[in-house]
Design a protein that fits this description.
single chain; mainly alpha; 367 residues; 0% strand; globular
C-alpha cells in the first residue's frame, strides 16, 4: 500500500548529475550557434560547427540515462497517468511558449510576408501543430519542417514518443532485451548513414526525413538507458572543464562528404555514450556547481525559444544580404541576447507555470 508519505517520496526528483546538467547547457548553446551558422555559411564543409546538429543525439542519450536513473525504480509505483503528468508538466509549458513565440515572429517578421501567403486558417493550424506536437510539414519556404513555427520541436516530438514507450515497455525490459533494442537502433543509424547523401545523420526534423528521427531517438535513448542499467559510470578527474573540451570536440569534427558516413556514426554510437559515462563519473569542483546548475536549468528554455528568432535571421540574410564581417558581430550578440531572454522566460514564465501546474495536478510544489 502506498501511503501519502511514500507518494510524496516517489514524486520527489532524485539528485541530478550536475556535470551532465552543465553539459546539456553547453550543448544547447552549441545548437543555437549552429542554427545561426548554417544560415550564414551554407557550405557545411566550410562551417567550423557543421556537426552541431549532433547535439540532439547527445540530448537523447542524456535523456535515456536520466529517465532510467529517475524512474526505473519509481515507474511501477507512480503509474502511467502520474508519469505522463510529471513529464507533461516538465516539458510542455515550453513547447507552448515556443509556439507562441513562433506565431509572434511569424506575424511580425519585417523581412517576409508569409502570413499573407498562408492566411488565418493555415496559420492557426501551424500554431496548433506546434503547440500540440502534431507534425504538419506544410511550408516549403521553411524546408517542410515538421513544426514550421518552432523547428526544434521535432526532437521534443520524438522525446515524447520515447517517454511513451518507456513507461509502457522500456522500463520493464531486462538487460538482454535492452541490448537487443540498442543493436537494432545502431543498425538503423548505420543504414541511414550509408543511404543518405554525404552520410549525414541530421534528419528527423522534416517531412522528407521524418523516420530518421525515430532511428536517432531509438538508439540514443536506449543506449543512454543501457549506460545507467549496466552501471557504465567511469570514475575520472576530468571535471566540468575537461568534459566541455571533450564534448566540443565532437561538434568541431570537420564535415567531410567522403567520410561522414563513418565519422558521424562513430560519434553517435560510441562517443556520446562514452561522454555520458565519463560525465556521470567525474568529480565536480565546488566552484563550478552554480554554473552547472544554471547551465542545466537554462538548456531546455534556450533550446525551445531561440528558433523563432532564427527564422527572422534567415529572412534578414536572404533580403538584406549582410556582409560576412557584420554577421560575425550579429551572431555572437544574438546568441548572448537569446541566452538572457531564455533565462527570463525560465524565471518569470516557465518555472511559475510549472509550480502552478504541479500544485494543481500533483499537490506538489517542488520543481
Amino acid at each position: 500500500m502506498i501511503t501519502a508519505e511514500n507518494k510524496t517520496n516517489l514524486l520527489a526528483s532524485k539528485q541530478h548529475f550536475e556535470i551532465l546538467d552543465g553539459l546539456r547547457g553547453v550543448a544547447a548553446i552549441v545548437v543555437v550557434i549552429y542554427h545561426f551558422m548554417e544560415i550564414a555559411i551554407t557550405n557545411y564543409n566550410k562551417n567550423f560547427l557543421s556537426h552541431g546538429f549532433l547535439a540532439v543525439d547527445f540530448f537523447f542519450c542524456l535523456s535515456g540515462f536520466v529517465i532510467a536513473y529517475a524512474y526505473d525504480s519509481r515507474a511501477p509505483h507512480i503509474g502511467i497517468t502520474q508519469f505522463f503528468k510529471l513529464r507533461l508538466i516538465r516539458l510542455h509549458p515550453l513547447v507552448v511558449i515556443g509556439s507562441v513565440l513562433g506565431l509572434f515572429t511569424f506575424l511580425i517578421d519585417p523581412y517576409s510576408d508569409l502570413y499573407e501567403v498562408y492566411g488565418f486558417g493555415k496559420t492557426f493550424l501551424l500554431f496548433l501543430s506546434s503547440a500540440f506536437l502534431i507534425p504538419y510539414p506544410a511550408m516549403p519556404e521553411r524546408y517542410t519542417n515538421l513544426f514550421c513555427l518552432n523547428a526544434p520541436a521535432w526532437s521534443l516530438f520524438w522525446e515524447y514518443i520515447a517517454n511513451i514507450f518507456y513507461i509502457f515497455a522500456l522500463y520493464r525490459l531486462g538487460k538482454k532485451s535492452l541490448i537487443a533494442l540498442v543493436l537494432v537502433g545502431a543498425a538503423c543509424l548505420v543504414y541511414i548513414a550509408v543511404k543518405v547523401p554525404n552520410g549525414n545523420l541530421g534528419g528527423g526534423w522534416g517531412g522528407q526525413n521524418f523516420w530518421d528521427g525515430g532511428a536517432r531517438v531509438l538508439y540514443s535513448f536506449t543506449v543512454g538507458m543501457l549506460v545507467y542499467r549496466l552501471n557504465w559510470v567511469i570514475k575520472n578527474k576530468l571535471g566540468f572543464l575537461g568534459m566541455i573540451v571533450l564534448l566540443l570536440a565532437a561538434f568541431l569534427v570537420p564535415f567531410n562528404d567522403k567520410y561522414n558516413f563513418i565519422t558521424e556514426p562513430i560519434l553517435v554510437l560510441f562517443y556520446f555514450p562514452l561522454l555520458v559515462a565519463l560525465g556521470a563519473g567525474t568529480v565536480l569542483n565546488p566552484s563550478f556547481k552554480k554554473i552547472c546548475n544554471l547551465s542545466g536549468e537554462i538548456s531546455y528554455p534556450l533550446y525551445m525559444v531561440h528558433y523563432p528568432f532564427v527564422w527572422i535571421f534567415l529572412t534578414y540574410v536572404a533580403e538584406v544580404q549582410p556582409t560576412a564581417s557584420s554577421l560575425w558581430v550579429i551572431i555572437p550578440v544574438s546568441v548572448l541576447i537569446l541566452i538572457l531572454f531564455s533565462y527570463l522566460v525560465m524565471k518569470f514564465v516557465d518555472i511559475p507555470l510549472r509550480k502552478y501546474l504541479k500544485k494543481k495536478f500533483l499537490n506538489d510544489n517542488r520543481i
